[in-house]
Amino acid sequence: MVESTGTPEMRARTSRRAGASRARANAQNSFAPGAVDLTSLGPIMYTFMFRNIASDGFIYSDPQAPGDISRDSKPGCIIAAPSFPAETPGIDEDYVFNWVRDAAITAMEVAKAAMPTRPGGTVQTLNDYVTFADLCHSNAQPTKGHACFTIAGDARSWTEQNDGPALQSITLLAAYDQLDPDTQKRAVGLVNSNVAFLLEVYKDPTTNLWEEHTGYSFFARSAQLRCFEEIQASSITGIDRPVRLQAAIDWLSVALAVHWDGSKYVSMMADPGNGAQPSPQNPVVSGYDPNIDIVQSAVYGAIPVTDTKLLATAAQLRSQWEEGGTVFYPINKADKEKFGIGPLFGRYPGDVYDGDTSHPVPGGHPWALSTCNIAELHYKLAVEINSSGKVPVDDLSTPFFAQSGIGASTDPATAAAALAATGDAMMRAVIYHSDNLELSEQFDGATGYERSVHNLTWSYAAYLSAMRARAAAG
Question: What one-character-per-residue DSSP string does 239-261 give?
Answer without folding.
Answer: ----TTHHHHHHHHHHHHHTTB-
